[in-house]
Amino acid sequence: MQALWVKWRTPRLPEPDGERSGELGEGKPLRLLILGDSAAAGVGVSHQDKALSGQLTRLLAPHYRLNWCLHAKSGMTTAQTLKFVQQAPNGVDVILISLGVNDLLSPIDVQRWLASTGALIGGLLEASPGAMVLLTPLPPLGNFPRFKQPLAGVLRRREARFNRALEQFCQEKAACQLLPLMLPLTPDALASDGFHPSAASYRLWAECASQAILARHLIEDTRPV
C-alpha cells in the first residue's frame, strides 16, 4: 500500500526532447549504443543535451568520430528490453545499459532478473561481437527522500541483493564492466520528482562512463601488435 501511495504521489515527468542518434567528433571511429529505461532516456531534464546521451557524447567527441544511438523508454524492465535487441544497431563498439530499477520495484526475484540480463547481453553481443558492455549499478532507492520506512528498508535490502548479483555477473563476463558510479543524494542530485537524476547527476554518470571507455580503448591502443 505504501508503494502504491508513493507511485500515485510521484509526478510523471516526460522524456526530454532532442536527438536520439547522430554523428559528431573527429578521430578513431566509435559506435555507441545507449540502452535502457527512463534514466537512459533522460527523464528529469528538459532536453537530451542535458541528459546522459548528450553529456556523454560531448565528452567522447574530442577523442572519437562518434556514431551514437539511444534506445530507451520509460518503464522498461530488462525482460521488456529484450524486444529491442532486434531493433538495435549491429556492429557497435560500446553498449551502455541502464536497467534494473523497474525490475527492483517489481515482484521479480534476483535470479529471474539475472537470467533476463544474461539473455539481453547475449543477444547484443551476438549482433556486436567484441563490444564493450557497460552496466550501471542500481541507485540507492531506499535512501531517496521520497521513500519512507518500512518501504525504504525493503528497497535497501533488494538493491543490495541486486547490485551484489550484478557485480558477480560482470566478474564472470569478460565483455561486461560495472561502472563504479555512486551518485550523491544532495538536493541538486535529483530531478523535481525526487526520483530521476538531475542534469548534475547525468553529468557525473557521463563522466564515469567516458572514463571507462577511454581507459579501455587506451589499453587496446597500447597493446603490442
Automatic annotation (TrEMBL):
InterPro entries: Ester_Hydrolysis_Enzymes, SGNH_hydro, SGNH_hydro_sf. GO terms for molecular function: phosphatidylcholine lysophospholipase activity. Pfam families: Lipase_GDSL_2. Gene3D superfamilies: SGNH hydrolase. CDD domains: FeeA_FeeB_like. Residues 34-204 form the SGNH hydrolase-type esterase domain. Transmembrane segments: none annotated. This is Lipolytic enzyme, G-D-S-L family. It comes from Shewanella loihica (strain ATCC BAA-1088 / PV-4).
